[in-house]
Amino acid sequence: MGHKELVDICKEVGLPSGVLNIVTGLGPDAGAPLSAHPDVDKVAFTGSFETGKKIMASAAPMVKPVTLELGGKSPIVVFDDVDKVAFTGSFETGKKIMASAAPMVKPVTLELGGKSPIVVFDDVDIDKAVEWTLFGCFWTNGQICSATSRLLIH
């Protein structure tokens, strides 16, 4: 499902205007103007440290609230006093965490991949499917690692 279809569904089910705003484009063209615009009340971003620093710099002059979840793709478990590592994310990063923890025999709990799909079968109650799909996408404004990001329809 593309972003245009998602917008159409949200309108169809009565999601109020302004609750969902989809902005497409590259960072310099789309993201930078958003983080610096005085009418944008808050910026939430998940991604690289480099981009996070740029967002903070753009938002700082207006004392705009910013929520950043930043991280690299090369995690290393280095602290002796860490008893266990729990990670939710990509398979690639999970392998690196497992490899880093193994020499120290650290217990690791990994929840990898998936992209948080909702699967809708042909015998479904369509109203319930729509309700739960929207809940999965927008609960906590989508700012949670398990937010629905794919809809698979039978």
UniProtKB/TrEMBL annotation:
InterPro entries assigned to the protein according to its UniProt record, in alphabetical order: Ald_DH/histidinol_DH, Ald_DH_C, Ald_DH_CS_CYS, Ald_DH_CS_GLU, Ald_DH_N, Aldehyde_DH_dom
Segments forming domain Aldehyde dehydrogenase: 81-154
Ranges that cross the membrane: none
Keywords, ordered alphabetically: NAD, Oxidoreductase
Pathway: Amine and polyamine biosynthesis; betaine biosynthesis via choline pathway; betaine from betaine aldehyde: step 1/1
Residue numbers annotated as active site: E69, E111
GO molecular function terms listed in the Swiss-Prot or TrEMBL record: aldehyde dehydrogenase (NAD+) activity
Family designation: Belongs to the aldehyde dehydrogenase family.
Protein's UniProt name: Aldehyde dehydrogenase domain-containing protein
